[in-house]
Specification:
The chain has five helices and twelve strands. The protein is α+β, with helices and mostly antiparallel strands. The protein folds into two domains: 50-132, Beta Barrel (Thrombin, subunit H), CATH 2.40.10; 147-247, Trypsin-like serine proteases (Thrombin, subunit H, Beta Barrel), CATH 2.40.10. Strand 2 and strand 3 (91-94) form a beta hairpin. The protein is elongated, with a radius of gyration of 30 Å. The chain starts with a helix and ends in a 6-residue tail after the last helix.
């Protein structure tokens, strides 16, 4: 009897507890769907690859202004692009941007300006290495990539200064490898080039060609143009960074 009374008391207590504190009601399908929709709406999407590429390369981008004189003795200038590639501030660019210049001025991403001189030339590749006489307080060399790991159709990004518009970016794809191109600027036949359809124009020369990771895979050296007007028609060329960056041992890194 005492045992039975204890069991009955326990059951009564349990019933009273559930009556006073009822358990949670199961969620309906609609409530679950509404909760999932709210969570997905509040999630922040990852930035586009192009945005991340720009963030990676922009601190390493350089505007190049080359001063010279034409045959009549009047001063003229050439605008181009470059990219910082070493901790010492060395800048890779296209040789035709700076060749025979009376003076070369470079502007770093933070606005720091410096005079620069050519320290290494690769005429056969239209590549030059510049050494500035002044560095910014924060120097960010670009990360050099591996063009041999790329395929036709891979994303290709160009960041430079077309027509002097600093820090402009364009996106496209790799169109071919091992191309040859006769550069009208340097009167040199260039070989082993990366072909791309990323939009580039005068002022992009010497700037970096990048993969989706923001790594420099080439240096822009020219555009194929079947007409006399100097504008982009969908075919650009870059020297692979394995060559421009010293693959042949001619640059000091």
């Amino acid at each position: 009897m005492p045992f039975a009374s204890g069991v009955a008391a326990s059951l009564l207590a349990l019933l009273l507890y559930h009556a006073i504190f009822p358990g949670p009601q199961p969620l309906t399908v609609q409530e679950v769907n509404d909760t999932v929709a709210q969570v997905m709406a509040s999630a922040t999407p990852l930035p586009a690859y192009s945005a991340r590429v720009y963030q990676a390369i922009q601190p390493s981008l350089v505007l190049i202004q080359a001063r010279g004189a034409d045959q009549g003795g009047e001063s003229n200038g050439r605008l181009g692009s470059g990219v910082v590639v070493t901790d010492q501030g060395d800048i890779l660019t296209s040789l035709h941007v700076v060749k025979d210049a009376a003076g070369i001025q470079v502007t770093f991403a933070d606005g720091t300006q410096a005079n620069a001189q050519i320290t290494v030339e690769q005429p056969e590749n239209d590549i030059a290495l510049l050494s500035p006489d002044r560095l910014p307080q924060v120097l960010v060399p670009a990360v050099l990539g591996n063009p041999n790991s790329m395929h036709i159709g891979d994303e290709a990004y160009a960041v430079g200064n077309p027509f002097g518009l600093y820090g402009s970016m364009s996106a496209g794809v790799v169109s071919g490898f091992n191309r040859a191109f006769h550069s009208p600027e340097s009167d040199q036949r260039l070989e082993g080039l990366i072909q791309f359809d990323t939009a580039v124009n005068p002022g992009n020369s010497g700037g970096p060609l990048l993969n989706r990771d923001g790594h420099v895979v080439g240096i822009v050296v020219g555009i194929l143009n079947p007409v006399e007007e100097d504008f982009f028609v969908g075919i650009g060329f870059a020297v692979p960074i394995t060559i421009a960056g010293g693959g042949g041992g001619s640059l000091p890194y």
